[in-house]
Predict the 3D structure of the following.
Amino acid sequence: MVAKRARTTLSQIATAANVSVTTASNVANGRLELMSAATRERVETIMRDLNYRPNEGARSLRLSQRRSIGLIIVDDSPRFLADPMNTNILAGFSNYLSVNGFALLLCGIHHATIDDAHLLRRDQTDALCVIPSGSATERRRLYRRLKETEQPILIFQDDRPSFLPDALSVRQNDRLAGERIAERVIQRGARHLVLLVPSQHWPAVTERQLGIDHVVQASGPDVRFETVVCGSESVADTQTAISRYVDREGLPDVFMGGNDQMGIAALTWALDRHLSVPADVRVTGFNGFEFTQYVRPRLTTVTSPAYEMGKQGAALLLKRLARGQFDERQLVLDVELQPGDSD
Amino acid sequence: MVAKRARTTLSQIATAANVSVTTASNVANGRLELMSAATRERVETIMRDLNYRPNEGARSLRLSQRRSIGLIIVDDSPRFLADPMNTNILAGFSNYLSVNGFALLLCGIHHATIDDAHLLRRDQTDALCVIPSGSATERRRLYRRLKETEQPILIFQDDRPSFLPDALSVRQNDRLAGERIAERVIQRGARHLVLLVPSQHWPAVTERQLGIDHVVQASGPDVRFETVVCGSESVADTQTAISRYVDREGLPDVFMGGNDQMGIAALTWALDRHLSVPADVRVTGFNGFEFTQYVRPRLTTVTSPAYEMGKQGAALLLKRLARGQFDERQLVLDVELQPGDSD
DNA sequence: CTGAAAGCGCTTACAG
DNA sequence: CTGAAAGCGCTTACAG
């Protein structure tokens, strides 16, 4: 069992300062107009000397208010934080909460272990956020579980299901991103487009795919579009899938990474075979995170406002907690084409 | 103010099931041998129907046990999670805690705002962990603040200060990493070594520097070693610093990135100037995280067990909570040279 | 300006 | 096998 520790309590402060716990509590909570300057100073000194830190559990029990938000990242990889989309959202989210005095409970889970997640089993947060992955069915099941918590819900990078009234969806315009990148490569002459996608389903990747498909459909019959499923998003898996595809079908005009990592894997694959990019094969990515600056030729991609999504999502969520309801049901942030030399 | 919500409580369960709260509590906590099968089933059904989720605040108040651990990452960049060392440690740490039913409270802070951190001001965790950065003085101040919390402390990637008796240091052998990489480049003919370091101080980078210096000292007077401070770890800042250095001093034999990101920035810098790597200038990194696979030539680096550090750190910390004291004061994980084609 | 007291939702020692 | 009751550390409506 975890050892108990006797920490300083308000009543100890009160005793030492010769005041009631009411007054001690008022000092701790900055209701300073309720007492004389002398009392206040005496209590503050003692709090500092005794190193008083209020017990958050007691406070939240009394107030039915936890001052903490849970973030669930559903990713089958234990390295769920290797994905820069996840970490950028998390960074923005965490920073905003931190500045506003809210704690962030982070939990990475697999679909198979959703039911074990302590964030879902125990009542310890004011609201729950999720970065989902998985099939539509798996996500539906997840959202049902979230609904049972009866907490406000924030969903990153997926739509709000209709059975979740007290929820907000925050995402980037991935459909537009797909359109932009498809327009770009087609305009530059590509006629055979291959999109590389991970076997794990991410709603954002589907959106990108739909965006590409939309532009392809509008481009007439001489433009061809295929999707290749690559296993994990790792360099090795992606390159294996590319090799297998090319052995069978030959080189397409362009490999479009479902995200930057997969685009870069395609780029490296080409360079290792002494293929020239973009002369022999073009390559693109999605999201434009920092590490795309590592590769040459510069990757053509579409920049993601992931950090901003995290930050604005947190802001809207805290507003929801303060006001009792979400003012809006959806926030879609814009993306921007970032032309490189790879296509 | 945050709205209250009336959630299902144990006493509601007890009433509905026609048992006492004692029995309801026993069911909730799996003490099933204390009641008849019929009672148990009745209570369990009602808990499921009413969607009962125990109030963790109340439990922790009663038990003086929070089942949650705080992780503080001190990094002056708001994108503190862009650093793969941080995210890999975090992933391992978070996964281990999650599987063992502990919540993880994540908080990224700057040195200037340490005193505002809710993890330090409020009593809401069983233990506190930190990934520190900053000068020795800044870190000392941080550790003093941690000591005041009177909680067990886990320090990643830095030593335990002697005034923190109830603390554990978990790090990788960065000194050895520096030695390995220096031995390698010197053995391959490098005589003028330049280490690129960020202006923000990380204890691990200092260790790497000491390791290199140690090998350089032992190599006789014809080996020269310098350090170039690069601003942030970003590609742009690193490349600016490199350009400035080369304009003044000419090309060294090898640019040693203080981490992979800076090594890759040097690599890209060279390629952009049509310099051949390693023929014209050699380049190395540290840590060998996934994205080093993105670049060609393959980066010579030293692999980091960051995920393992997070995981083992979490394991030792939970053991500490269960047993009342740390069995050891330090855990140092090994690193391994990963030869590439860049040096 | 200050304080006594109730009660938030749990767990557990104790009594039956 | 089951339950009544105390108490964890807070906040706040209320009384003085």
